[in-house]
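Possible regression after last week's pipeline update?

I re-ran a chain I had predicted before the update to compare outputs. Posting the input and the new output here so someone can diff against the archived version. Not blocking, just want to make sure nothing changed silently.
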Amino acid sequence: MLSLFKALLNHLGYVIIIAFLISRFSIFREIVQKGKIKRINLFILALFFGSLGILGTYIGINVKGAIANTRNIGVMVGGILCGPVVGIAGAALAAIHRILIDTNGITAFPCAMATLIGGYLSGKIYIKSTMKNRWLYGLLGGIIVENISMSFILIFSKPFYLAFDIVKSIYIPMVLVNGVGISIAIMITENIFEAEEEIAAKQAKQVLEIANKTLPHFRKMNKDSLNEACKVIKDSIHADAVAITDCKIILAHTGSASDHHTVGMSIATEATKRVIRENKIEILENKREIECKYDNCPLKSGIITPLRDKENVIGTLKIYYCTEKNIGSRDITLVKGLSELISTQFEISKVEKIKEMANKSEIKALQAQINPHFLFNALNTIVSFMRFDVDKARELIIDLSTYLRYSFEKEEIFVSLSKELQQVRAYVKIEQARFKDKINIIYDIQAQPEIKIPSLTIQPLIENAIKHGILKKEGEGVIKVSIKEKEQNKIFITIKDSGVGIETSIVENLYQGKSKEGSVGLLNVHNRLKLIYGKGLEVNRLENGTLISFEIDETY
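New output (post-update):
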């Protein structure tokens, strides 16, 4: 028994190889994180883990006509990490092979049946377990399946005395090695994922910290401000030089080689031209690939990535080092994140100028309400999602950029209803990400999307309902936005919340043209509506919440 135990224990080496190999597959990563995956990929994974089960049979040890093996490790690891389809299909493949390889073997049928049960059980474990306790379920599941296998051998294998002798010889080694082997494979795989996710989270946090530091510089969008933004990036990622170009000239360059990579000069390197032309990132690992025509250029490696406005290339971000650097995937991921950040900030800044917006007094007053705490909290929320749900974090970055772009760029007095609601939805999604099920919103839109309404009208009222209504009460809250065509050329808009209810003093001050702390946005919207239509907001405190309504007359 001891020699068998040692032999099976040696086979655990292939478990380590399994754990490493499967952690490299992107389709495997998606399904381990319980994301959606195509059926063809499930088939590939089932084939892979089934093959591992077959391998476990092939390297097994003959014990009195039976095969002491590690087949169930591959099968159950597949099911526990990838779900019922992979578990059952992989088990079926390994079980059929077990019968075919030893059709008349004394333990062929019982072991095949136990393998099928193991595949089914592993799928159940996938559904019930979490990332933190899968290894424990794997250990228990492996022990249970091996016990079932031993029981089947005793029940179905003949003669009984030989079956009993086989079980007595292989029971302890098989139960321990397979149970522990499944647990080890799961732990190693998930530890690799956790380490990589932690690195990704740190990179995401770094990108967001850079965003926070560079945002003031990108708002100004001139030579000095772009150089300052490049300096922030250079210092933050420990590069030797950072540059930003448009499609023709260098807009900013800070760090090494500033004496000949100067602002305003035309793009000279073929690498940069290729990035602009092909819309693909370029990795430069030596001085020859940089292609600088200046003989004494100290730059010896770098990354050039396109900056985009939607799908169109509008320039490049260039990160340089003064050593020949072996640029890895982490460096590339970080620079890609920075390029997306800068592209978004370019979009936010490209249309409007602060000086022009100052001429719109109502819009300026609303812009002043963009609370830096809201921006800070939104960034923190995005950082928290980076570790567990990268796709959700990306969606929130888009929502935040939509919110900021609308708030900073709009100078029109009137915008389409669809544009106004786009900003409302972006704001609400960010707040819902922060407070989860606390905030629920219902949209009842029965009006044409091209209808023109005063800009920044609905969002301040939604914000007021969340901050001063929903968040001040216990439990969940609901906001209903209703927009209906009341009669020809007239639109009736209501915002109803189930919060604590507006204070009577605030309503009285509103109608008197006075603002109380926390109600500046309410007063601003009220005054603008009165200025345009002659009638402002109608505000009513309800038994449970607040109802705010107003009319839009398209004839104005």
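Follow-up from reviewer: compared with the archived run. The first helix runs from residue 2 to 11. Marking as no regression found.
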